[in-house]
Amino acid sequence: VVYDHGPGALAGRLWWLLRAIGHRQVQLLDGGLQAWKAAGGELEVASEPSGAADSSLVAAAEFGDWPGWLDNQALSAGLASGQWRLLDAREAARYRGEIEPIDPIAGHIPGALNRPFSDNLDASGCFKPPGQLRDEFVELLGEYALTPERVVHQCGSGVTACHNLLAMEVAGLHGSKLHAPSWSGWIAEGREFATGQAAG
After folding, report:
1. What global pTM score does this model have?
2. pLDDT tens for residues 146-187?
3. 73-126 per-position pLDDT tens digit
4. Cα gap 156→161, rounded to integer Å
5. Cβ burial, residue 89 (10 Å; 0-12/13-18/19+)
6. 3-state class of 76 per DSSP?
7. Is 162 a catalytic residue?
8. Cis ω before 7 (30° cut-off from 0)
9. What crossing angle do the helices spanning 161-170 and 130-141 adopt, rounded to 10°?
10. In this structure, what is the dihedral angle of CA atoms 171, 70, 93, 137, given to the nearest 10 degrees?
């Protein structure tokens, strides 16, 4: 079980990484530490983790051979052919290119739709119900929701995109993929970009 302080963006990345190297029995604590404390869960203060001293993980599959992620070349080719539908998990202002606090270029990958990862959460910071998430993704993705394995997620660096990927899994839309380089890796290669709101 993985968690963070909430709302699950960092824990979602760890969930994806563990699955990427072959560990399939991975769960995320909905709402994270904040929800745990709100539910009266106990906390432990320790300088060292309890349990076994050896916390190393052994990969069950080579990361590069895992079909759950795409590099820039594969994404570009798939977007051109219509194979992929790309979702950008960054906040709307970054997606539109109005602000960019991290990378030297502001904007988004041409053809990407915007779904800020925070849209997956309710007012308490937990995931919305599966049915509601499904309805929202279906409305956004259209026909691509019928083949969720053709959906690819990205963000700034590939972290919050995992939250959208996990939300689709929660919604019963299985098999979507991660654009691992995300925006930072895309523009680092000098690839074309767009600003403003996508036409859909």
Report:
1. 0.89
2. 999 999 999 999 999 999 999 999 999 999 999 999 999 999
3. 999 999 999 999 999 999 999 999 999 999 999 999 999 999 999 999 999 999
4. 8
5. buried
6. helix
7. no
8. yes
9. 110
10. -20
Q: Using the predicted structure, report yes or no on whether residue 64 has a pLDDT greater than 80.
A: no
Strand partners, 88: 114, 154
HEC sequence for 10-73: HHHHHHHHHHHCCCCCCCECCCHHHHHHHCCCCCCCCCCCCCCCCCCCCCCCCHHHCCCEECHH
Q: Which of 97, 22, 89 is nearest to 57 (CA)?
A: 22
Kindly list the distances between the CA atom of residue 44 and the CA atoms of 30, 37, 49, 51, 54, in Å, as whole numbers in the listed order: 19, 12, 10, 13, 20
| Beta-carbon contacts of residue 164 (< 8 Å; ≥ 6 apart) | 87, 89, 115, 117, 120, 153
Burial classification of residue 192, based on how many CB atoms lie within 10 Å of its CB (0-12 exposed, 13-18 middle, 19 or more buried)? exposed
Provide the token pair at 154: 């990205």
The span from the CA of 175 to the CA of 123, in Å, is 27
d(CA 27, CA 145): 23
142 compared with 197, residue with greater pLDDT: 142
Picking from 143, 142, 144, 164, the residue whose alpha carbon sits closest to that of residue 153 is 164
| Catalytic, out of 10, 75, 152, 155 | 155
What's the pLDDT score for residue 46?
77
The percentage of the chain sitting over the pLDDT mark of 90, rounded to a whole number, equals 81
Question: pLDDT higher for 197 or 162?
Answer: 162
